[in-house]
Amino acid sequence: MELKEFISETIQQIALGVKDAMDKCEELDIIVNPNITVGANGDYYIPKTGSTNMQRRVQLIDMDIAITVSESSEQNAGGGANIKILNVGGGIKEGKSTSNENRVKFSIPVCLPISNVDIKPRNLGGII
């Protein structure tokens, strides 16, 4: 898989996971990724009144990817049987193998699917 495919597929799977969680949690009165939050340092909440004017929140997806390039040349001697789970071989393998690993670390800003939270003042017997 190429790096661009991995990144694209990962972001798509995260977004689909958020959307799926939104659908499944709605009946449990759980709000997944609300469109309106206020706070800082991990302490977020939905305000009681519609006094905040916010756009969709930008969130970062952090990626730390190891890219490994391997080259090998093998020569098999003798007979063998390869089984998917056990990988049993009855021969001798000779050859050279080299591999190089590079790491790339980055963040991608995204706006994930949101749950719309309609904030309306409620009349609680004169208390708003």
Largest sheet at a glance?
2 strands, antiparallel
Mean pLDDT value = 74
Lateral strand order in the biggest sheet: 1-2
Question: What gross morphology would you assign?
Answer: elongated
**How far is the first residue's CA from the last residue's CA?**
56 Å
Write the layout of secondary structure elements.
Layout: H1 3-25, E1 38-40, E2 43-45, E3 59-77, E4 92-110
Please provide a written account of the structure.
The chain is elongated and about 70 Å long. Residues 79-90 have low confidence and may be disordered. The chain has one helix at residues 3-25; strands spanning 38-40, 43-45, 59-77, 92-110. The protein has a two-stranded antiparallel sheet with strand order 1-2. 1% of the residues are buried. Strand 1 (38-40) and strand 2 (43-45) form a beta hairpin. Helices cover 18% and strands 34% of the residues. With 128 residues, it is of the alpha+beta class. It is built from 1 helix and 4 strands; from the N terminus they run αββββ.
